[in-house]
Amino acid sequence: MASVSLRSVHKKFGPITVLQSIDLDIEDGEFVVLVGPSGCGKSTLLRSIAGLETINGGEIHIGERQVNHVAPKDRDIAMVFQSYALYPHMDVRRNMGFSLNLRKSPTRMVVERVSAASTKLGLNSLLDRLPKQLSGGQRQRVAMGRAIVRNPQVFLFDEPLSNLDAKLRATMRTEIKALHQSLKTTAIYVTHDQVEAMTMANRIVVMSDGVIQQVGAPLELYDRPANIFVAGFIGSPTMNFFDAVIDGKQAGLADGSLLALPASAAVTEGQKVVIGIRPEHLHFTDTGIPGTVVVVEPLGMSTQVTLDAARERVTLLALERPVLAPGDRKHLTARPQDIHVFDRASGLRVN
Amino acid sequence: MARAVSVRRRTIATAAAWLIGFLIFFPILWTIITSFKTELEAFSTPPKFLFFEWTTENYGIVQERSNYLRFVSNSLILSIGSTLVALLFAIPAAWAMAFAPAKRTKDLLMWMLSTKMMPPVGALIPVYLIFRDMGLLDSRGGLIAVLFLMNLPIIVWMLYTYFKEIPGEILEAARMDGASLWKELVYVLAPMAVPGIASTLLLNVILAWNEAFWTLNLTTSAAAPLTAFIASYSSPEGLFWAKLSAASTMAIAPILVLGWFAQKQLVRGLTFGAVK
Fold this sequence. Notes:
By secondary structure, chain A is α+β, with helices and mostly antiparallel strands. Helices cover 24% and strands 34% of the residues of chain A.
């Protein structure tokens, strides 16, 4: 087990900069999730840590060691690939034992480690099968088994669940988290799915355009997003945004209605801002922002209502079960402490 | 996708396929039939198809006149030797092109292929002079070198297409698992590429076996393969159709048998990558 630290790492593919000056410290035993839209550089960053990509500048440390020029095979890290990348010509047992056999580990140790891992992952009955005889979920498990038999310093996961169906994904998510809690090995996990990020991570790193947007615990990111990008990326359904202009202690929306701001908002009169409100923080009231119901979607536990209000399409999540029909006219409001205020020009949070 | 086809159309299509197949096979069949005729019957008009006096005397005469086994062994050495040498160079080259491509890799592949478009006769005189000065004329080593270089572009191309089908992530996984480049090639890439390497080998053995231009021009006797054996029967003393046919049949028989048994591999080799 080891910590990982990145110091102003940057990387270019030809003229395109994919990582610009990434600084990140990952503590020993932490489960860190790199999340962002496709093309944001998260996979490239992971592959750089693995040594499968060479970086154009900066430093990567694993534990005490600077590994910039260390070959992947000598970095003592294990990686789980999106495609699982199992060796098609080897059965499960040999797939899992391959790394130990390459190191010429004593046979007894290989057998012990493989059987320990396969017991942990419920693979005991599949040890003699070839990858092509396994289902997607089983292949995924073998890929994890191949990583854990090595007892590496760091685990890297590159979107390991995106080839699985929704139900299996939820199960594997829980399993990976449980596995990490029992092994306590440092893990870096890449995904584009913010639900995976929220549920699995000790800390989330949100990336966009090769830049880290925010680093923090899942709920910290959810409650206090540092900018509009993070606010829109974390949370499902996504946060509602309204363009507004500061008018005293209030924000004037596009349709002229006013919204009370949190006391903490550091804004000046006439400043152009973006107001963010999470769907579950919007409520129906008698006065407030007028809106027209477009779609009503009962989800059981909650009801998702889509409205047109203040020239935006707005989502509201109601825990009670409102009786509504498309075309109904309602008024919306939110408590000041639930309102996120961002500067429109810089996109940064100002409260 | 299966389409509904009427019985009539299917019958016509089947008949047409057999007809085309027969037309393609006919020259070989005719050669084999002619080899069992006497010289007189071989060029009688109208040609006799099946009703003539079958004789094996041509084979006997051919055996007496030339040392068939020496030609066969030369053919084997040249075709297998040149293919193995080519694989030795082509496997690492194709690995690099498929898994670590550079900016100019595609251009390089096209250039390699373009050398095959040049008529070999364009290079005959310089190659001949080089061979003469180096004392390589009529030597197996020299001919292996020529055949190996001649087929190298095709071998690299074939292996490149095969390797492209192998997901790079599997090789990366091996690297993460601690495999050195050599171990990655031996334990992971090669076992996955065995079918590809095998069909490349087969196809190139056949190409080298049938190669006539260089073998005829650069050998006389010591290193002469079966192509020279056949050519020796179209001599200035006049054509001996029956004996020529017998020699041809003896020359193509081994490769025909090999091709028959390796059909599946060969078809796979030729169409690999076309359909996933």
